[in-house]
Design brief:
The chain is mainly β. Helices cover about 10% and strands about 35% of the residues. It has 1 helix and 10 strands, in the order αββββββββββ. It has one helix at about 25-40, and strands at about 45-50, 60-65, 65-70, 80-85, 90, 100-105, 115-120, 125-130, 135-145, 150-155. The strands form 3 sheets. The protein has a 4-stranded antiparallel β-sheet with strand order 7-6-9-10, with no helix packed on it. Strands 1-2-3 form a 3-stranded antiparallel β-sheet, with no helix packed on it. Strands 4-5-8 form a 3-stranded antiparallel β-sheet, with no helix packed on it. Strand 4 (about 80-85) and strand 5 (about 90) form a beta hairpin.
Length: about 160
């Protein structure tokens, strides 16, 4: 099993979050069989800590048959950021029946930034926003038909 965040050497203080505590690694390893059994049925929520730079800290993720169904159970339409290059950002739709719209803009342009609107095509799992500038911070806002939204700040990689 790969290293867990709690395997990293940390000094435990009163401010240490529960998911970084050294005892968590052992508990998670001891519970892996229970997780696999429980997640083989219908949706199974689990509070987890992953290094995912677009959502800080712990989140409630839902699994079904061992497969990630939702990154955030409270925002099930939320796509996963799967790639960032110098000129593009790639997103993956987790919930395929979600009707998503998106807008993005350059953060450095502030209030005068031109917002570009896009519709995520139905049935398309991945969406690539291209023709971006290298080493530039963009703000992406994705929302579903109920107007629930999620905003990401993403810096493209340098050339």
């Amino acid at each position: 099993m790969e290293g867990l965040p709690s395997d990293l050497p940390t000094s435990v203080t009163d401010e240490t979050p529960w998911y970084r505590h050294p005892d968590i690694s052992k508990t998670m390893r001891d519970s892996s069989d229970n997780f696999c059994t429980a997640s083989s049925g219908s949706l199974f929520p689990i509070i987890s800590y992953f290094h995912y730079p677009y959502d800080a800290g712990a989140s409630v993720r839902c699994y079904s048959n061992g497969k990630l169904e939702y990154i955030d159970a409270l925002k099930c339409y939320q796509p996963e950021i799967t790639g960032v290059s110098a000129n593009s950002v790639t997103m993956k739709k987790i919930k395929m029946d979600a009707c998503l719209e998106m807008k993005y803009k350059k953060v450095a342009d502030g209030d005068t930034a031109k917002e570009l609107m896009m519709q995520w095509p139905d049935g398309q799992e991945r969406f690539v926003v291209s023709d971006l500038l290298p080493n530039t911070e963009y703000e992406f806002t994705v929302w579903d038909r109920n107007k629930a939204s999620k905003t990401y700040r993403i810096v493209t990689k340098p050339n």
